[in-house]
Write a structure and sequence with these properties.
By secondary structure, the chain is α+β, with helices and mostly antiparallel strands. It has 2 domains: 78 residues, Alpha-Beta Complex (Outer Surface Protein A, domain 3), CATH 3.90.930.12; 83 residues, Alpha-Beta Complex (Outer Surface Protein A, domain 3), CATH 3.90.930. It contains 4 helices and 13 strands. The strands form 4 sheets. It has a 4-stranded antiparallel β-sheet, with helices on one face. A 3-stranded antiparallel β-sheet has the order 1-6-5. A 3-stranded antiparallel β-sheet has the order 2-3-4. A hairpin with a 6-residue loop joins strand 9 and strand 10. The radius of gyration is 24 Å and the shape is elongated. The model has no long low-confidence stretch (mean pLDDT 89).
């Protein structure tokens, strides 16, 4: 049994949890989230806690048991606190802007890159248009949208220029300057 799924999950104050026809609905101060519960998994709701149980010990059901426990924990956190991802644009002249419910990135391409902002994700730009903060109540959607933004121009391997997560550690490669001092004589080809 999953260590996470052994304990009941406490329901925070001002949060309502309902289960109707295998759909779990959690409503809180920041919004409402829904998740379909697969067969083999039961969600038992009491006045102050939620417990995830399984109907049998099949391998697939055992795998889903811990996963759905963590998904419900994330849903409860999302409707009370929300989730945040921070990205940084590294490079000379790189900047982001918000125009008409879309993000506009000027990151060294000939034309700006425009991405539509989903309705359930909020964006804020700080620090001279180089820091982007995404917030929302659904952890999966916020993380996926942040990954799509990073995929526009991932940090390069030599100088780290591009879009990266704040706190992301990059292992930069050494440049060719070290090889230039010894390779110059061989490349000249003496007579």
């Amino acid at each position: 049994m999953s260590k996470l799924a052994r304990k009941p999950i406490k329901i925070p104050p001002k949060v309502a949890v309902k289960s109707e026809s295998n759909v779990l609905k959690i409503q809180g101060p920041k919004g409402t989230l829904e998740k379909a519960i697969p067969q083999g998994i039961d969600v038992v709701i009491s006045s102050d806690s939620v417990k995830v149980t399984r109907k049998n010990d099949e391998k697939t059901v055992r795998m889903l048991h811990g996963m759905y426990t963590s998904l419900i924990i994330n849903m409860l956190q999302g409707v009370t606190e929300g989730f945040k991802k921070e990205l940084e644009l590294v490079g000379v002249g790189y900047k982001a802007d918000i125009k008409d419910k879309s993000l506009v990135f000027n990151i060294g391409f000939t034309k700006p890159v425009i991405m539509l902002l989903p309705s359930d994700i909020n964006a804020k730009i700080e620090e001279k248009q180089t820091k982007l903060i995404l917030t929302g109540i659904d952890k999966d959607k916020v993380g996926l949208y942040a990954a799509k933004i990073r995929a526009i121009k991932p940090p390069d391997a030599y100088k780290g220029k591009g879009i990266k997560f704040i706190g992301e550690v990059l292992k930069l490669k050494p440049g060719k300057s070290a090889a230039g001092s010894t390779g110059g004589a061989a490349a000249g080809g003496g007579k």
